[in-house]
TrEMBL record:
It catalyses: 8-oxo-dGTP + H2O = 8-oxo-dGMP + diphosphate + H(+). One of its GO terms (molecular function) is 8-oxo-7,8-dihydroguanosine triphosphate pyrophosphatase activity. Belongs to the Nudix hydrolase family. This is 8-oxo-dGTP diphosphatase. PROSITE patterns: NUDIX, NUDIX_BOX. Signal peptide: none annotated. It comes from Parenemella sanctibonifatiensis. It holds the Pfam family NUDIX. PANTHER family: 8-OXO-DGTP DIPHOSPHATASE, NUDIX HYDROLASE FAMILY PROTEIN. It comes from the Bacteria.
Length: 136
């Protein structure tokens, strides 16, 4: 089972969404930036590393954004996603994996087309809202 780690980065009450460049099947769809956890790396550290690599964005990683049941989000039978709330004071600067970024208020999250596995996450955030401070 491979693990992906990503961050729901919050700034000024908005969440960072990033549009994927590829592969073709998912190009143009939006996601929480992140990527695969490397051997020996924690998911939390992977989320922080991927944000730096993909968006040159320094983030503070906070509480895990878990489903109502369980710890991770099952993307497909061989892949699970660990998602963390994060905060930043920086500006994203996409390095090649994404061609557009947006800061979306909770009531704007539905305005972009998310990766299929993320729909359930978006619905949960719409129900629960953003964390009080982004901190755990
Ligand atoms: N980062 C991220 N990936 C997601 C989300 N939702 C979702 O289904 N995925 C899937 C898409 C991909 O199959 C996988 C992430 O893999 P990736 O290809 O971005 O990983 P990576 O940057 O490490 O790239 P690589 O090692 O495969 O080259 O997780 C999400 O919100 N964020």
């Amino acid at each position: 089972m491979r693990q992906v780690a990503a961050a729901a980065v919050v700034r000024d009450g908005r969440v960072l969404a990033a549009r994927r460049v590829g592969p073709p099947a998912v190009a143009g769809l939006w996601e929480f930036p992140g990527g695969k956890v490397e051997l020996g790396e924690t998911a939390r550290a992977a989320a922080q590393r991927e944000l730096q690599e993909e968006l040159r964005l320094q983030v503070e990683v906070h509480a895990e954004l878990r489903p109502e049941v369980g710890t991770w989000w099952q993307i497909n039978p061989g892949l699970r996603l660990r998602l963390y709330w994060a905060t930043t004071s920086g500006e994203p600067d996409p390095t090649g994996s994404h061609d557009e970024i947006r800061w979306l208020a909770v009531d704007e999250l539905h305005e972009v087309e998310w990766l299929p596995a993320d729909h359930v996450i978006i619905e949960q955030i719409q129900r629960t809202g953003l964390p009080e401070s982004g901190r755990d």
